[in-house]
Design brief:
- The protein has helices spanning 35-41, 66-80, 91-102, 126-134, 138-148, 154-161, 165-170, 176-184, 210-222, 238-241, 243-255; strands at 6-10, 21-24, 47-51, 85-89, 107-111, 200-205, 226-231.
- The protein is an alpha/beta fold.
- Strands 1-3-2-4-5-6-7 form a seven-stranded mixed sheet, with helices on both faces.
- Helix 3 (91-102) links the parallel strand 4 and strand 5 (107-111).
- It starts with 5 loop residues before the first strand and ends with a helix.
């Protein structure tokens, strides 16, 4: 039996004003990383940030599949209610797309889901990455992942290394290899999403890796009811580095949804 997901709930001070928000976090994030954004959204939303498998307070098993994580999302959506907005960040965006194909949410928000449109994202880089994981060199593991998977330039990696977020992120890469394998097998066919006729917001950062932004732009063309927002001066982790801007984008999107 699969371990149940754990979701951190941040209550709204006026829950009747907008739908609940369920967050599927990225490969190097846990629910607690979304607390600042949840606090900013609290006047309007009840936020449920999921600790995906193998992170935070959630359990784990060696078997891994995107569909199992999509089932976890379904469990949290049942808790949040049928009018919940589903937000997927990075790898969590792939999970939300997999879920939506079987059970579309009321609306959803995607922040740079890494669909492998240009071929495998992990590919040959997975072997040295897994060797670093086995050696317990998590600093090197994070460096290799940022360079080879997310395509961060070395100067951006060094800037990131100087921030307090580096040590937190360096503790999470052991789950990244299996997620990269799942990502590479996700496929590049965007036509399968044409049936998702639900309100969708695609968010990209002005400074994000170009390939991630390009994926969102192409997904914008494939989804029938999607709008695209670029946040100036931000990159892939706007929920940490520019939470006010992301909160504004989420709130504006929700305000425009039909009653």
């Amino acid at each position: 039996m699969s371990p149940p997901p754990t979701a951190r709930r941040s209550p709204s001070r006026s829950p009747a004003r907008a739908a609940p928000l369920v967050v599927s976090t990225g490969a190097l994030n846990a629910a607690q990383d979304w607390q600042i954004l949840a606090d900013l959204l609290a006047p309007h939303f009840t936020t449920y940030a999921i600790d995906r498998r193998g992170r935070g307070a959630s359990g784990d098993k060696s078997e891994h599949a995107i569909q199992r994580e999509a089932d976890d999302i379904a469990a949290v959506l049942d808790l949040a209610g049928p009018d919940a907005i589903l937000l997927g960040h990075s790898y969590g965006g792939l999970v939300t797309l997999a879920h939506a194909l079987h059970q579309p949410p009321a609306a959803f928000i995607l922040y740079e889901p890494p669909i492998p449109l240009g071929g495998p994202v992990g590919g040959d880089a997975l072997a040295p990455f897994e060797e670093a994981v086995q050696a317990g060199d998590l600093d090197q593991t994070l460096t290799l992942g940022l360079r080879n998977f997310l395509k961060f330039p070395d100067e951006a990696i060094e800037e990131f290394r100087q921030t307090p977020f580096w040590a937190i992120r360096a503790s999470m890469p052991p789950t990244w290899a299996r997620e990269m394998r799942a990502m590479d097998s996700f496929g590049d066919d965007l036509t399968r999403f044409a049936a998702l006729k639900i309100p969708t917001l695609l968010v990209i950062g002005e400074l994000s890796p170009r390939w991630l932004a390009d994926v969102s732009r192409r997904l914008h063309q494939a989804l029938p009811d999607a709008r695209l927002v670029e946040i100036p001066g931000e990159a892939h982790d706007t929920f940490l580095t520019g939470p006010h801007a992301l909160a504004d984008a989420i709130t504006a999107f929700a305000d425009g949804l039909p009653d």
